Amino acid sequence: MKNIFNHIDTVELLKRIDKLSPNSQPQWGKMNVAQMLAHCSSFQDIAMGNSFPPRSWLGIIVGRFAKKIMYNDKTLPHNLSTIPTILIADDREFDIEKEKLKQKIITFQNNGPEKCTTHPHPFFGKLTSEQWGIGIYKHLDHHFKQFQV
Predict the structure, then answer these.
(1) Which of 35, 36, 38, 131 falls 20 to 30 Å from 149 in CA-CA distance?
(2) Shortest CA distance to 142 belongs to which of 74, 89, 47?
(3) Quick one: pLDDT at residue 46?
(4) Which residue ranges make up each domain of the chain?
(5) Distance between CA 1 and CA 31 in Å, rounded?
(6) How many CA atoms lie within 13 A of 31 on its CB side?
(7) How far is CA 13 from the centre of its chain?
(8) CA 113 to CA 21: how far, in whole Å?
(9) How many CA atoms lie within 13 A of 47 on its CB side?
(10) What is the pLDDT tens value at each position of the chain, 149 positions in all?
């Protein structure tokens, strides 16, 4: 499985970000490309321990059982619900959001697994740094496919 802590996988993600443009259109979902970049950046903040959204009741009940949808080689289904605090609905500036996300990905990869948050994921609960690395890659891959890159 691909993992953001693998340098080659990170380079691939950064190249895919560079293929996006302000005119990139989603194949599904409601976010435009700048909102998607901001959403992914907000998710990076959670994994880096800079943001601590509360656990949802649904996550507390079924989150640990649902982990298997994240930690396999299958792509994520379209139109999954998201963590409410990282749902981006306001207008964002494409170039700013693109650079923010790139810098967060680079920082996260450079910091390595040992600096990954130990705070529980808002839905899945406690994750190992390897699970965070795989989950972040898979989340980014999902949204990049949404915008055909």
Answers:
(1) 131
(2) 74
(3) 94
(4) 7-146
(5) 27
(6) 23
(7) 11
(8) 31
(9) 31
(10) 999 999 999 999 999 999 999 999 999 999 999 999 999 999 999 999 999 998 888 888 888 888 777 777 778 767 777 777 788 989 999 999 999 999 999 999 999 999 999 999 998 999 999 999 999 999 999 999 999 99
How far, in Å, CA of 119 to CA of 40, rounded?
A: 18
Name all contacts of 31-34 with Cβ < 8 Å and 24+ positions apart: 31/88, 33/94, 33/147, 34/91, 34/92, 34/93, 34/94, 34/97
The CA angle 145-138-26, to the nearest 5 degrees, is 25
- 3-state DSSP call for residue 75? coil
Q: Say how far apart CA 147 and CA 97 lie, in whole Å.
A: 15
Tokens 């998607």 label which residue?
36
What pLDDT is recorded for position 103? 98
Residue with tokens 């989950």: 135
String of DSSP letters for 78-108: TT----GGG---S---HHHHHHHHHHHHHHH
Phi, psi (deg, nearest 5) at residue 83:
-65, 125
